[in-house]
Amino acid sequence: MAEISRNIQENITNIKTIFDKWGDIVEKEFVLDREDCYDGVSVYVVYIDGLCDHELIENTLIKPVTWEWRHTPANRENLWDRIVKVESQTADFAEEDDFDSVTESILKGDTAVFVSGSNKAMVISSKHFPVRGIEESSTEGGMRGPRDSFNENFRTSTALIRRRIKDTGLKLEQGTIGVRSGTQYGVMYIEDIARPDLVDRVRKEVDKYSIDAIFDSGMAEHLMEKSWMEIFPIYQSTTRPDKAAAALVEGRVVVVFDNSPEVIIAPATLNTLFQTSDDYYNRWHVATFARMIRYLAAFIAVGLPGLYIAITCYHREIIPDKLLYAIADARSQLSFPVVVEVLIMELLFELLREAGIRLPSQLGNTIGVVGGLIVGQSAVEAGIVSTIVVIVVALTAIASFAIPNEAFASVFRLLKFVTILASAVYGILGFLLAMLMLTFHLASLDSFGIPYLSPVVSCGYIGDDGQDFVLRSPIKKMVHRPAWSRPDERRRLVRKR
């Protein structure tokens, strides 16, 4: 701990040494010289340009101090006490006696004020970061519900959650991660709903490693995972404040990171990763049908190419005769086996998808659609692939886009290559073995003690968790919270009369 000197010139020298060659550091010493009071006393203000609201500092501190010092009668009161109690026109400040803490606050966008004769510094909250406005989520769109989304400002993200949950039980525990970046994070939970052991485990996972820098919640999520080899996400990420608020009132924990437009939610299960906010804003019939479509899409995304290979290579007898003749006719002029056809088209679609992401939005959409049509048609005419394979691969790609969570959908896009290779070697047996191994793996996973396949796999609580599974029951029938909430706070809906 480095103490602040009563000699302001020593403090100024230390600041100049620490921030040497910083072109964006703003520092100013105001000498308050009056013959009837103090001789040469001064106030030293320092902040980083671009991270601070300089108008706030001018209006709430500099102008009041300099004006009153010139126009008020002489006052022998200590200068520090006078500034803190009378002349400072802001309530959001703190008194610091540790020089390192003051330096850290300056790096975060606050303003430090040193005063002659005082071994303390005033740290004024003056953060004003260059961030995007609150916009509609581009990755989690919906037909109904709020249109706002998180942005890269930490305080804006926490405020969007507090706007929805006006409860004193909503706690926010703040900290920093990253030795160089000093990224601010916050663990949010509702104290009387979330289980204490869950909150403790999340808190420990965030502080488990020391790293140079964290620039996004995705980097922190990878550090917080139990096994770096795990391909399925054990945290749920979202850019929608309403989804984060809904998770909190269910007893889950939300972790917010500065500089990231996404928050992460723990625990996460296979069921929660298939859910969207629209499920609770639409009629339960529509939501149930949409969920069925998503689960079917997940199976198509991971299994359709492998199933096609297994049937056409090893089990042609189960194909109807007319379809079999059509497939044979389409393949009569081809030079490559079915497996090579499928791999060529799958890799081609992945290439087009990656190119569409990297290009500007307007050009990316054009390249994705036009490139897919032209290249696919050209490949068919050149005798490289058949029309049936183009249909199978296109349907697989469309199905992967129906999965609402991007990190989750990426896993299925990778696993489809496993089913392709297994089906190519062992046929339908290889396909079934691949799907069985996938099921066994999912059954072995857990997220903070909650089975990944919950509510199919029991969480130790016999209740109505299944009412928010593939079948989404009406809101008035969902009277209990999920199993990850406190046992004595399961009930969330009570009929008044």
| Tally of alpha and pi helices | 17
Question: What's the total number of strands?
Answer: 12
Determine the N-to-C terminus distance. Answer: 61 Å
User: What's the story with the biggest beta sheet?
Assistant: 5 strands, antiparallel
Mean pLDDT: 85
Describe the global form: elongated
Widest sheet: strand order? Answer: 1-2-4-5-3
Q: Describe it for me?
A:
The structure is a single chain. The protein has 497 residues and is α+β, with helices and mostly antiparallel strands. The protein has three domains: 8-124, no CATH class; 154-268, no CATH class; 292-447, no CATH class. 46% of the residues lie in helices and 12% in strands. A five-stranded antiparallel β-sheet has the order 1-2-4-5-3, sandwiched between helices. It has a five-stranded antiparallel β-sheet with strand order 6-7-9-10-8, sandwiched between helices. It has a two-stranded antiparallel sheet with strand order 11-12. β11 (446-447) and β12 form a beta hairpin. The longest helix has 31 residues, at 284-314. The mean pLDDT is 85.
Q: What brief labels describe this structure?
A:
about 500 residues, alpha+beta, 3 domains, elongated
Short description:
The chain contains 17 helices and 12 strands. The protein is of the alpha+beta class.
Record the SSE blueprint.
Blueprint: H1 8-18, E1 25-32, E2 41-48, H2 54-71, H3 79-87, E3 93-96, H4 99-107, E4 111-115, E5 121-124, H5 154-164, E6 170-177, E7 183-190, H6 196-206, H7 217-224, E8 236-238, H8 241-249, E9 253-257, E10 263-266, H9 270-273, H10 278-281, H11 284-314, H12 321-330, H13 338-358, H14 361-381, H15 387-401, H16 406-426, H17 428-444, E11 446-447, E12 450-451
Antiparallel strand pairs: 1-2, 2-4, 3-5, 4-5, 6-7, 7-9, 8-10, 9-10, 11-12
